Amino acid sequence: MMPRMDFRWWLLMHHVGITAFLVAHGVSVFVLFRLRRERDRDRIRELLQFSGTTVLPMYISLAILIAGGAGLATKLGFWEFKWIRISLGLLIGEILFMGALARPYYRKIKESLLVRPSGVPRVADEDLAARLMAPQPIIIATAGFGGLLAILSLMVFKPL
What we know:
By secondary structure, this protein is an all-alpha fold. Helices cover about 75% and strands about 0% of the residues. The chain has one domain (about 5-155).
């Protein structure tokens, strides 16, 4: 029989997950804003590929973050409090919102880099520049930071 886990191990797991998530996801945020200034198609491709390498570590760290948080909430009996359930709901909402907004934006940028068999880009440079300057990166970053701030506030102040 396994010994029961001390709450500090759950807390450590949760904090490791948070830290790893912020590091992995920070790359995507950096790329999101770097793309707005970039016009070289090869460099845009490289940035998108670089960002793509962090997706798996981001989701693994998110799973660790959630598992640690759920273990901690269970161990300390936090599920009875509304703030913990609201925090989890906000996290799930953020994940869904980011997927609904960020994935199509990145897909549209990737499609803009496609080249016809003749070697001519499918999307003109001006149209690519307009797509790169679209408001989605600002909306994505604002929503991400706002959601993170809301969750952090609930965890620190525990108002409900």
